[in-house]
Amino acid sequence: MIDEIRLGPDAPVVGIPCDHKTIGELPFHAVGEKYVTAVMIGAKSLPWLIPAFGPQLDLGALLDRLDGLMITGSLSNVAVQHYGGAPDRADSPQDPLRDSTTLPMIRLALERGLPLLCICRGIQELNVVLGGTLDTQVHASDGRFDHRAPPVVEIDAKYIPRHSVRFIPDGQFARILGSTEIRVNSLHWQGIARPAPGLVVEGVAEDGVIEAVSVREAKNFALAVQWHPEFRVWENPDSMKLFGAFGEAVRAHAAAKRQPAQPGARNAA
Question: Which residues pair with 182 in a beta bridge?
Answer without folding.
Answer: 165
